[in-house]
Structures are given as structure tokens and as C-alpha cells.
Amino acid sequence: MMEITETWIDSLAPNSAAIKNGRDLNKKGKYIELHRSEDGQVLFGLCAGSGKTPYAPSADFAIPDKPVMRCSCPSRQFPCKHVLGLLYAYAEGRPFTPAEVPEDLAAKREKAGKREEKKAKEAVTAAEAKPKKVNKSALKKKITAQLEGLELLEKLTRSLIRRGLGTLDAKELKVIQEHMKQMKSHYLNGAQIQLGKLFLLLSQKDGKEQAYSLAADQLAIIHAFIKKGRAHLTAKLEDPELALDHESSIEEWLGHAWQLTELKEAGLVAPAAELIQLAFTSYDDTARQEYVDCGYWIQPDSGEIHYTVQYRPYKAAKLMREEDSFFEVAIVPELYRYPGGLNRRVRYESMTSRALEKSDLNRIREHAAESFAEIVKSVKTQLKNPLADPNPVALLSVDKVVADGEGRLFAADRQGDTLELRDILDNGTVHLLKFLPEDALSEIAMLAMFHHDSLSGRLAVQPLTILTREERVRLLY
Known about the structure:
Blueprint: H1 6-12, H2 16-27, E1 31-36, E2 42-47, E3 58-60, E4 68-70, H3 81-91, E5 97-98, H4 103-128, H5 136-163, H6 170-185, H7 189-202, H8 208-238, H9 250-253, H10 260-265, E6 269-285, E7 290-299, E8 304-313, E9 329-337, E10 344-347, E11 352-354, H11 358-366, H12 372-383, E12 393-403, E13 409-412, E14 418-421, E15 442-453, E16 458-467, E17 472-474
Parallel strand pairs: 1-5, 8-10, 14-16
Antiparallel strand pairs: 1-2, 2-3, 3-4, 6-7, 6-9, 7-8, 9-10, 9-11, 12-13, 12-15, 13-14, 15-16, 16-17
């Protein structure tokens, strides 16, 4: 059986309340029986509930990276608090006596095994079959509709620029909202989001001067999207295969949701990868009308910084499990990578975990960029593309953190080059540095988020995590 730790169990929970309730079941001694199968693959037991009949939670590790959780309770949460409590009991070292798997559970396991065999056979058959044909006629209609949508978007932005941002009234703002709805009907979800950002900026009642400056930047992004989107769609219509672009993020900007099979066919999958999360944040994206859970991870064998992201639409947020920080090493059978720049979005279908060791910290630190000048050059190259991520993340080798006469903090490399430390996200971290001991601010590796301030023209970074020789200090988690 895989190693079961509290951190791993926390990552399974649908929300923080389920974690608390699962732990409380243990504290209150609600588990009447705790057992494990003779082969160690199944944990099961009985948990006292509100009725006369106890609930029967179980965790089946026949496939270690895809454990199956079951319970006889009526809860709609998955896994429920009874299963979580069962796992916490095991992680805490409570005794699980060997016992034969109950008949009803054994029957369910047998049925599940047959389903897995059937899926495996179907997967082999699908792999051997001819590639699925694309409905080119329908795709051409969609591309034509997208091109028409880009024309509407261009007319709107030209009208806004001609009138001047400072003269826009409630009527013009309503026109922007109407165009947002039209973008969706033209299969341009990316355009809808960008117009939403523009609308929010122009709707601000305070800080008008800064809002107009940011709105001008937003219009530049929309203009670049129109130009690159039109060129891409036009070229796609001329391509007899109507192939997807696996190199850049333009497909996502145009509303394409990548399927794992597509990423695999494009060779964007790596086997047997390890990931270590260095930072995590959740925020409310009003323009998207979604909550966003974002984690930054390093692949210790290559040093690449990836990110995972989950979007939880407002309407469905209560039904979706909120992602959370992960403090161990994730062992992923298959790591899927999205097209992108310095930081690629990644996904995986299953994972196991192990404890983070000192040797892992040493491996991570070895990948830190020794020269700020080199990494800044790569960041600036990315920022020249308006459609690229405006806040790339990199691991820096920092000789020391210093302050100037005005109290501003800077990260300095061994060559004496410096980068100003400034809060970029709403979750500030720079002020936390004053609480760290001196040895945690010299000869360290720092995970930092870059940002180019269009008003000052300067590049700054926000510290997300600090790695000393002894520990990982997460400032954003």
C-alpha cells in the first residue's frame, strides 16, 4: 500500500469543513471497528452515526494511485467525513486489525475490477483504431463565426478609442456588456473575459487615472488578440487538416479546452514525474465569474516551474472541491503539459505522495538561476507577447536581501544585480520577510513572481517561497 499521510488525506477532502469533521470523528472515538484486509490493500471499519446502524467507510488501494473510497452514509460529499476519518486514524497509527473483507464490499470490488478490465480493453481498442475524424464542416462554421466575432470586437475597440476613455458614460459601458454576451455566441470565451476585465476597469469610481492607464494596457491586449486570432483562424481555414497549434496559447485564447487525449497525441505528456508545490493561492476572478485555485510546482529533475489551475464557476462552486496547499512530493504516473511559455500549465489524473526530504530541497536549490540578468532577459522576451502570462514565475539564487535608504527591499545576486521586492498579488508577502531570521535572507533560493509596471517602466518581483539549506518557507500558501 502507498504511504498515507495527513497531507495527502487533506488533499482528498472536498473542503476544510470535511477535514475538521473527519478529524473530530477520531477525537470523539466514533470508530467502533478498524480493519485492514490480509493483503493490506483495503482499509475498512464501522463508524457510529446519528442512527442505530453504524456507517461502513472503506478505502481500496488495489490501484495505489487511484484509490476507491466508499461509504454507506447518504452524504453527497466525496470522500465523506467517515472515509476521511478512517484514513486519518490510519495515518495517526491507530491499530487496524487484519480481517476478511465484508461480502458486500468484496462484491463491489469485483464489479469495479471488471469495469477496469473493460476500460483497459476499450483503451487498447481505441489506440489501435483509426484516429477520430474531425467534423471539418462544423469546424469551418465555427471558425467563420469566430472571425465575425473578431470583426465586432475590433469595431467596438476602435469606437472606444475614438471617443476617448475619459468620455465614456453608462451607455457605453452597457454596450461593452452587450458585446461580452455576443463574444460567447461567437465561441470567443477569451474575448469575453478580456472585455470583462476592461469593463471592470472602466467601471471603477475611484482611482480613475490609474484605471484609465490599465484600461489602455487592456485595450492593447485585446488589439493583439484580434490581430493574432484573425491571422491564426485565417491560416487554419487554409489548412486542409485544420490542425491545432500545440506551441502557443492562442487556441486557449480562442476558447479551445484542451483534452488530455489531444495533449497526448501532440507529445505533451511525460511519464513518471515528481512535482513539489512551492506556492499556492486562491482568488476571486470577477471578470471570469469564477474562483481560481492556482498552485506553482517545480519538477525537481528538470527544474521547470509549472502551475496547476482549477476554475470554479460561481454557480457551481459549492459543488466543486476547492484545491488547497500540498506540502509533500507528488508522484505522478503521467504529467500532461499545456502549450505555453516560461511556466506551463500541467494536469494529472492520479498521484501518490511521499514526504519531502532535505535532499529534495538540495535538488531544487541547484536549479535556481544564478544570474538575474539572464532570467530577466527571458522574462522580458515573454512580456513582449501581449498574450503571454504577464506574471511569470522563476526560481532565483539570491545572495542576500538588502534595503535602501527609503526602506525598500531588494534581492541581490552574487554579481550585485538587484530586483525590487514588491507585492503584485492581493495577497502581500514582502512584509513577511521582516519576521524571518537573517540566515533565511542570505544564500537562499527564492521563488519569485515577475511584474512589469507600465507606469514606472520597472520590473519588480514578489517573493512567494524561500528555500534555505534546511527548510522550505512558503510565504504564499
